[in-house]
Amino acid sequence: MRVLIVGAGILGLSTAWALVRAGHEPVVVERGRAPDPRASSFDRHRVIRVTYGAEHGYAAMALEAFSAWERLFADLGRNHLVQTGQILLGPREEPWIRDSLASLARLGLTFEPLDGGALRRRFPHINLPKGQGAWFIPKAGALLADRICTDLSAWLVQQGITILEGAEVVAVEPEQARLRTADGRTLEADALLVAAGVWTGRLFAEFRERLQPSRQTVVYVRPPAPMAAAWEEGPVILAKDGREGFLFYALPATRGAAPKFGDHNLAVGGDPDGERTPQEEAIASILALARRVLVDAEGYAVLEARTCFYTVTADERFFARKLGRTLVVSACSGHGFKFGALLGERTAQALSGTLAFEAYRAWIEGRALA
């Protein structure tokens, strides 16, 4: 089966990988480079975690994703997942934390509550806010996103797979699995996957309201010298307090990538083709969040700030629609990368018909095991 794939982000590339493994012929069509540094997927490292509040379906998916990444890395010949564990911080009565811990127990995963003294002894760079709790969760880590996408693109080329770069898709005929590019080419296949991320709404006006762009900023930092070793050996940090709409995350220094700070503010708006210079107020906001959970937070120096665009949905669930011989899929709202290899496998099954679309849609929306 020949499958056209629009978009060389993690979803498009992973689906192409899975299709090759199943004996099919994918053709990847990318508006920029493959991988494209402007895509949501392209960052130095991204979190993989199994904490999902009441969304047990996504927690179960995240646990399963670890095995899928092992299969992908075996083909690439390099492992780009660093097991770091996770520290979860927040009020003990926080519903999202309570539900996350219950979900972990349901999956048979361990976690360890830490008081302030134990936390400081093991992770001296992390501060426990007064009146809050801390939990260490071993099953978590950092995915080296840009290396994964780069190696995956190279692997596909080595398998003889066509990746058309600089080919902006301007029209799709979903019933015919046909597309047209800005330079006048028309391509057709047995099936078509549109995994165009934040640009999906330009191809399907009916999905524009559902799939919104969200401008996101992350900050790479140099820790104070006394804390450098703790960041080299430390965990992913996630601090949440729903009473204040507070959600801060940090990734440790891993394999040459500096520590990264971010928040989960999914403000809607912006143009993904527009100016991407990080805004000073966004940087300052993230650093202010860091001061609440890090020791000597004033001593951190900003090395670099970067802007990307997420695609977001109002309920933060992933999106899938079937139109004739075409699937339109968005693993969105800032939490899709961790599932990349697994999403590729399941999406390939949905495209080939070995997985019924309605079962696939329930799964990708996190409802199958909820």
Describe this structure in words.
The structure is a single chain. By secondary structure, the protein is an alpha+beta fold. It folds into 2 domains: 2-43 and 146-210 and 316-364, FAD/NAD(P)-binding domain (3-Layer(bba) Sandwich); 83-141 and 212-312, D-Amino Acid Oxidase, Chain A, domain 2. 29% of the residues lie in helices and 28% in strands. It is built from 10 helices and 20 strands. The strands form 4 sheets. The chain has an 8-stranded mixed sheet with strand order 6-7-5-15-16-17-14-18. Strands 9-2-1-13-20-19 form a 6-stranded mixed sheet, with helices on one face. Strands 3-8-4 form a 3-stranded antiparallel sheet, with no helix packed on it. Strand 16 and strand 17 form a beta hairpin. Helix 1 runs parallel beside helix 5, helix 1 (10-21) packs across helix 9 (340-352) and helix 2 (56-76) packs across helix 9 (340-352).
